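sorry to bug you again but im stuck and you know this stuff better than me. what follows is a protein written twice so to speak, once as letters and once as C-alpha cells for the fold. mainly i need to know what kind of three dimensional shape the backbone takes. anything you notice is useful, everything is just below:
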Amino acid sequence: MFFQIHIEASKESRSRLKQNIIEYLKKNTQKSQSEVIQALNTRLKGWLNYYNMPGDTAIWNTTE
C-alpha cells in the first residue's frame, strides 16, 4: 500500500498571510519594485518553509 500525507496551511493562516501582504504593500508604496519583490519573496519563502511546503502554485489557487 502507498500512503501520501497532504500538508496544508489552514484557511485562516492563508488569509492572514494575504492580509499581511496587502498591509505591507500599502505601507511601502515609496519603495522600488525590486525592493518590494525581494521583501515579499523573503516573507513567502519563510511562510512556505514554516509549513514545510514546496513553492507549489497550487496553494494559491485556494487562497481567497
Q: What stands out?
A: Helices lie at 11-27, 33-50, 58-61. Residues 33-50 form the longest helix (18 residues). The mean pLDDT is 83. DSSP finds three helices and no strands in the chain.
